[in-house]
Amino acid sequence: MATLHAELSHPLRAFGLELTLDVAPGTLALVGPSGAGKSSVLRAVAGLLSPRSGRVTLGGETWLDTARRVDVPPEQRSVGLVFQDYALFPHLTVRRNVAYGARDRRVVGELLERLRISHLAEARPAEISGGERQRVALARALARRPRVLLLDEPLSALDSHTRATVRGELHEVLGELGLPVLLVTHDFEDAATLADAVGVIVDGRLLQLGAPGELVAAPVDPFVARFTGANVIPGTAVRSDNGLTEVVLDEGGTMWSTDLASGRIALTVYPWEVALSREVPADSAVNHSRAPIARITTLGNRARVVVGPLVAEVTTSSVERLALREGEPVVATFKATAARLLPLA
Amino acid sequence: MNRLFGAVLWAATALALAFFVVPVAAIFLRVKPGDLISALGSDVARDALRVTLETTVVAQVVIVVVGTPAAYLIATRGFRGRNVVVTLVELPLVLPPAVAGIALLAAFGRFGLLGGTLSAFGLEIAFTRLAVVLAIVFVAGPFFLRTAIAAFEAVDTTLVDASRTLGAGPARTFARVALPLATGGLGAGAALSFARGLGEFGATIMFAGSLQGVTQTLSLAVYEQFDVDFDTALAIGAELVAASAVLLLAVKLIPSWRPSTQSFPIPSAPSASS
């Protein structure tokens, strides 16, 4: 299987897209806030957008090379693109949607079978559910037997309940494909579940690329940290002694980190590193923040508790045991070893 | 106060309806139905019907065949001067018919702008059947074009993009996605321009004249018969009323002409929002 290579430079509304990517067989997810230029990357790879300059190749095949004035039209690029809102043809049945790009009729039946939509073959897109439409869109894109699969926010059109199920199914299908898959999403959790590698893209630039675990363990940038779900608190590193750095937070208070830094920094700490207690505990942790609980959000057996500038993730049984209630003061604690300091741009 | 307001609304509606219905009804009520039908058998009426059908159908084919691709281009390509093009296309809509007639004469008449060139090829257009067709195309074409442009503009561009990424080139995408999704709008536009073509009078009488059996359409025959044989004029009028009513009804029913069995509205309805 060939590797997709893309170098793109293109002006967007507020910034320029400047990006180089290699997608080997397997899934690469581009994550970033809305308007970061993620969809433009997919459109440029598919041939729906002609970037100001760039190169797109798949193995030895050149799809785009602005220097040599090569720009292969979309219909001649072997890509499957799953659109954000799926873009199913409303006037065609599910079967005819899937068959639209198929050269081999047998593939259609196989795909309907494999994505468990055979029973919907004669239905029209308006008559089926969001999750089913997602599978039809995927089947339609695969029916052409593309050599690259592109997915634009494949889960964003779904409600949260359907989303978890479809994410699991999609993960399974993508794993079986053995194709270079480039996926864009604004949700780090979707990216981490579906992809082998995640690239964080902000304002048209790739900030960091790595396995999901690597991004969580060592974000290089406050943006990356925030995307992976960390608390990001701006402050100033004032002095370092005995191996610790003291950070004066912009919103008041001081914290300690084992990272060495000076000047403007963002202190980052993951919610699951933050413990809660009624009183300041007599333990090894040095960072304590006492503040009223602003909000408690429950997700299954976990609860996210907002305390001052921090979000703590604790079990629901801890919430009950400590009788935590919104508005009541609580102490949030984390170790200096859990606090990462990242320079602020 | 509110009762008075309600009464005013009803009175205005009744007045408007009566004003529109009475003249139309008068056509059918003044002459006995039997006499109406026998008047339609007269040579004048039969000739006019034949001329009208032949010219309107030919004009309609020209309008749809040329207008559909032109509307697609105007609707889907952003090009410099697009607004100017749209304005030029719409201009005949607001031109007084007499101006349209004289303009056609000035262009295609024997001494017109292109008249000399056409004569050299042995083509005399003015006061022929072809002149009737040209007059209808000129006056009725913009009705189709305008509606067709709107219909193609309403086709979701992501569906067009999707078609391209699925291996269909621009021509196949037009035929399999844009055209079927715009069918409703195109049908409505065709019906409107057909109705306008049926009633065409001013441009035709100036550019094509009113020769029985050659250029005299139903509308022209009504005008000519009304001081010769009022009953025949009424009978032809009745014929036109019936045809117009059928067309109007067709326009109303067009959304259900769609090949699909669905009830979503024309012309595009991507389904992700539900």
How many strand units of chain A?
A: 21
The level of helicity of chain B is over 70%
Number of strands of chain B: 0
Derived from helix and strand composition plus strand pairing, the structural class of chain A reads: alpha+beta
How would you characterize the overall build of this protein?
- The complex is a heterodimer of chains A (345) and B (274).
- Chain A has helices at residues 38-46, 94-99, 105-114, 130-142, 160-177, 188-194, 212-217, 222-227, 316-321, and strands spanning 4-11, 16-23, 26-31, 53-58, 61-65, 70-71, 79-82, 148-152, 180-185, 197-202, 205-210, 231-241, 244-249, 254-257, 263-269, 275-277, 287-299, 302-307, 310-315, 329-334, 340-343.
- Chain A has 345 residues and is of the alpha+beta class.
- Chain A has two domains: 4-78 and 147-224, P-loop containing nucleotide triphosphate hydrolases (Rossmann fold, 3-Layer(aba) Sandwich), CATH 3.40.50; 230-343, RNA polymerase II/Efflux pump adaptor protein, barrel-sandwich hybrid domain (OB fold (Dihydrolipoamide Acetyltransferase, E2P)).
- In chain A, strands 7-8-9-3-10-11 form a six-stranded mixed beta sheet, with helices on both faces. In chain A, strands 2-1-4-5-6 form a five-stranded antiparallel beta sheet, with helices on one face. Chain A has a five-stranded antiparallel beta sheet with strand order 14-13-12-15-21.
- Chain A is globular and about 70 Å long.
- The two termini of chain A are 40 Å apart.
- Chain B has one domain (54-257): MetI-like (MetI-like fold), CATH 1.10.3720.
- In chain B, helix 8 packs antiparallel against helix 9 and helix 9 packs antiparallel against helix 12 (230-253).
- The interface between A and B is medium-sized, with 34 and 29 residues.
